[in-house]
Amino acid sequence: MKKSLMLIGLLVMNTLLYAQQKPPIVVGFYNLENYYDTINDPNVNDDEFTPDGANAYTPAVFIKKVDNLASVVSIMGVEQNPEGLAFLGVAEIENLDVLKTLCNHPKLRARGWKVVHFDGPDERGVDCGLLYNPKMFKVMSASSLTVPVEVGDRPTRDVLYVVGKLNDDVVHVFVNHWPSRRGGESATREKRKIAAGVSKKVIDSLMKIDPLTKVIVMGDLNDDPINASVTQVLGTKWKTNEVKPGGMFNPWTAFYKRGLGTMAYQDTWGLFDQILISYGYLKSSSPGLHYKEAIVFNRPFMIEKFGQYKGYPKRSYSNGVWNDGYSDHYPTILILNQ
User: Fold this and answer.
1) Which range marks the domain in which residue 230 is found?
2) Is the whole-model pTM more than 0.85?
3) Cβ neighbour number for residue 276 with a 10 Å cutoff
């Protein structure tokens, strides 16, 4: 009897130890900054990113751009989980082929990443996408949601909506790239509020059914965490104890209030690249994954060391000249405990 009890005790202890040792799940977002191929597509305005275009975007430059992006993406999340990211939302990508090229890069190929992408209506041909590790994330459905706003006479980028299983959690992921501030923040403010409403409409319908539904809204929002599109339309809170069932939490507000950001303009930091999560990730008694930490991911090699943009993210091009950089945005990651 004593031996049986001891064996049971050891099994329980080993089970608990195993649970404690399970690495967290890491998800991320990255604006890949004009990640085009070199082919002139007559259906979109991509002329400047062609070999004969203003940026002299040759195959050699493209190959270096891919290698630079892979250098960043391949190390995102590996400090927390040896497999790296479970999925990565991306913006400013031209098509499915450039995403497949990135996933097939030698620094990423062994992970077997898959891609979700739809061609959208943006005049420049840039869309959002989702790269994912099928060992950790299983896609159940995907769709492209139209944003009912035009920038000038041009439609803006769609929202990528993906439903999948992250471990055993069903999660609803919205990848966004909202209208820019070109023309001024106040003049374009309503466009971003409309864009935020696209995800919000779906989220509200989900939360009516189950206020613990797990939702992740990510993207280059072209707004900071304190702007109305985020705080009013999406209704985010930045203190966990203020988030109610069905509500959304924004961990980046605290970063922003400390002067930290993901991109810089005229020597002022902005935090446009955000990942927002729903109440279900905060409630400790709910099953599955739970929020642990948010990180603006940057490393010394990703920082510009010289010139006009010293101290900024090291961009691909500087004043029309190839800068051998990565992106003019830093990526962001969220860590979720199993």
Assistant:
1) 77-296
2) yes
3) 24
